[in-house]
Amino acid sequence: MATATPASPLQHPAPRGGCPFAPPPAYQEAQQHAPAVRVALWDGAPCWLVTRYEDARTVLSDPRFSADSTHPGFPFISAGARQLGTSNPTFIRMDDPEHNRLRRMLTGDFTLRRTARLRPAIQRIADDLVDRMTDGRDRADLVADFALPLPSLVICLLLGVPYEDHAFFQECSRDLLNREAGLDEIVAAQDRLVDYLDTLTATKRDHPDDGILSRLVAEGELPVEEIGSMGRLLLIAGHETTANMTSLSILDLLRNPAQLERLRARPETTPAAVEELLRHLSIVHSGLTRVAVEDVELGDVLIKAGEGVVVQINTANRDEHRYPDPDTLDLDRDTRRHLAFGFGVHQCLGQPLARLELEIALETLLRRLPGLRLAVPFEEIRFRNEMLIYGVQSLPVTW
User: Fold this and answer.
1) Which fold has domain 25-398?
2) Phi and psi dihedrals of 385, rounded to 5?
3) Angle at Cα 273 formed by Cα 270 and Cα 276, nearest 5°?
4) pLDDT one-digit tens code per residue, 144-168
5) Quick one: DSSP state of residue 2?
6) What is the pTM of this model?
7) How many DSSP H helices and E strands does the chain contain?
8) Do residues 389 and 180 make contact, with C-beta atoms less than 8 angstroms apart?
9) DSSP conformational letter for 144
10) Which segments of the chain does DSSP mark as H helices, in order?
11) pLDDT single digits (tens) 373-388
């Protein structure tokens, strides 16, 4: 039985290889050797790295691995993650029963049935953005002109947040999700966003609307600060993940023209294509963090109580034992049970909405822009290597 050893030279995050869509080669190599390997985090703290599909599912579903960021030994993958996880944690950094108590207050807002009702509104937003993007132009930045405003408009509508404030909360999000940001910068961004949401939430008592924040205020189960904390989580997650997944998906398809043309010819397969793109890209490249609260044997590795674990879902989703030829984008692949939204009780609450937004975004872009292509060489595309949510800085396209 292997036990904890001093941190190896392997660092987290590890350097990327030649393919910007693929996990770091060091993680893929680690996948061949053990269920978990030792790595050093950004601050030098030792941690276990889990890269295999079945082991990832085990860690994410076993209550002996805690998501509670207040537990000693909990691994933080950046200074910003540590600040958010210790000073103002949301329910994703809690265990049951508190996690379930808070999460269930939002579950009804993201059911398949409730989300499906949003399809006409999201489609109108997508078409309007394409109209504006193409009005008198034959070139645009797909990130700024489409991929970012679409989920931002939707999540503002759901929460009851004024969209005219989007530049402010997007700036705060960038600072909070930047692994390279200084602590002062992170604290300032957090304070600005907390103050904004607390103030906005308080106004919902006298000026209610149909948004989630107003409903939570009216129910009276939570103080303003906790409602604002929920709002912060939904606001950041609700636009950052889908925006980056949309632009990266288009880029992935443009780099795989046979798959792109297959999808154009069969738009009814867009939902299945979204699942394969989610598997292939798995944009939470920073990993999902847990800490062992008991000694746990993971294969032939002993993870002791108090030791942190980072689950690399992007590597797990490219485990060849689960998905043959995993580095190939194959829109005909059976991608059921991929881990792009996590697994277990903490899996992404908003995944029905994310799927719907991605389906509408891809179908609309490919239908309305049949000549869509890169406006610059692929080598000029700058990737968000410094961010906790992976993507591209901008995506110049023409049609």
Assistant:
1) Cytochrome p450 (1.10.630)
2) -65, -20
3) 160
4) 999 999 999 999 999 999 999 999 9
5) B
6) 0.95
7) 16, 10
8) no
9) I
10) 25-30, 53-61, 79-87, 98-107, 112-116, 119-134, 142, 149-159, 166-176, 183-203, 212-219, 224-254, 257-265, 270-281, 313-316, 351-368
11) 999 999 999 999 999 9
